[in-house]
Design a protein that fits this description.
Layout lengths: L2 H10 L3 H13 L2 H10 L8 E6 L5 H14 L4 E6 L8 H9 L1 H4 L4 E6 L8 H14 L4 E7 L14 E6 L3 H9 L8 E4 L7 H12 L8 E3 L8 H17 L2 H30 L2 H12 L4 H18 L1
The structure holds guanosine-5'-triphosphate and magnesium ion.
Guanosine-5'-triphosphate (GTP) binds next to helix 4.
């Protein structure tokens, strides 16, 4: 049995150290990563992926912690994936998240992982979805994903989660910024967290009014994550939403769209790699110089060289 087979076997058996190791390998994107992913593929069950996005500090991690506790309380195994936490490797948010999630992190059945997409070479959607597939194959019943608000991270939460909760706060400035940043179009459920602030009802009605423009009745909920208030209602709403999407076929449609985005990202990444290698190749440079010396303008040179890029893609 190869090392990869053994590791995959241990991941499926639910060994968390092997899982952490497998994720690290997948993140590194080596050829071993490909082997792991293809061997895990038949174990992926398509369990719910619930996304939480919103402005920094709105309470996403605290809510996820409470949601995780709720699921665990129902006998479910939960994994949490925090994408691009404000401080990826040292102290700061990650440590803070760990501390805040300590009640679930220390309990069996909850696995917390953070990953940084900054500096990841292209294909970020593929990179995140690969890790989600590993978590699914490892037997988690639910996967909760946290991303920073629109524009603050390399991946859109809709490309990686089935159901999306947008978490805002009664703080007018931040919430309005979040709305402007396009968060209004992407949520299934909107959460006004920190509802212990007296302005929360006003923000909730404002959100409802803004969201009602399309005709469909928006779901806006208020929570106080720190005290767990409204969390059960939020959890039930998100789970109902997932079931409803599954029943009416929209879940499958969303996942198909995500897969298309993932495949496109992977192809783009291949082209980018090929072009980068090609452009530092001696033959390429000599050819460009020759065509330029013949008097061709750069656009025409590029057109001449285009078909060669395809040859390089096929060499990858
Ligand atoms: N008053 C109050 N504070 C809250 C509530 N929920 C979270 N907080 C606090 O708000 C701060 C930020 O909470 P987090 O859960 O880390 O927020 P986040 O959205 O994950 O933050 P980032 O990951 O840094 O974007 C923490 O100090 C929490 O204790 C709430 O309902 N009421
Ligand atoms: Mg957080």
């Amino acid at each position: 049995m190869s090392d990869v087979d053994r590791l995959v076997g241990d991941v499926i058996a639910g060994d968390t150290r092997s899982l952490a190791k497998a994720i690290s390998i997948v993140e590194a994107g080596s050829s071993e990563a490909g082997h792991i992913l293809s061997r895990l593929a038949k174990h992926v069950r398509g369990r719910p992926v619930i996304g939480f996005s919103g402005p920094p500090g709105s309470g996403k991690s605290t809510l996820i912690g409470k949601f995780g506790e709720y699921l665990k309380g129902n006998g479910l195994k939960v994994a949490v994936l925090a994408i691009d936490p404000s401080s990826p490797f040292t102290g700061g948010a990650v440590l803070g998240d760990r501390v805040r999630m300590v009640s679930i992190a220390s309990a069996p059945g909850v696995f917390i992982r953070s990953m940084a997409t900054r500096g990841a070479r292209g294909g970020v959607v593929a990179y995140v979805r690969s890790v989600l597939r590993v978590l699914d194959a490892a037997g988690f019943d639910f996967i909760l994903v946290e991303t920073a608000g629109a524009g603050q991270t390399d991946v859109s939460i809709n490309d990686v989660a089935d159901v999306v909760a947008i978490v805002v706060t009664p703080d007018m400035g931040d919430s309005i910024q979040a709305i402007k940043a396009g968060l209004l179009e992407i949520g299934d459920v909107y959460v006004v967290n920190k509802a212990d602030d007296s302005r929360s009802s006003y923000i909730a009605s404002m959100l409802e009014a803004m969201l009602s423009r399309g005709g469909a009745k928006p779901v806006v909920l208020k929570t106080v994550a720190t005290r767990g208030e409204g969390v059960v209602e939020l959890a039930e709403t998100l789970l109902r939403k997932w079931e409803q999407l599954k029943t009416d076929g929209e879940l499958q449609a969303r996942r198909r769209r995500q897969t298309i985005a993932e495949v496109v990202a992977l192809i783009m990444e291949d082209f980018r790699t090929a072009i980068e290698r090609f452009s530092s190749d001696k033959e390429f440079i000599a050819e460009v110089e020759r065509l330029t010396a013949e008097g061709l303008d750069p656009k025409s040179v590029a057109r001449e060289m285009r078909s060669r890029v395809l040859e390089w893609v096929n060499r990858l």
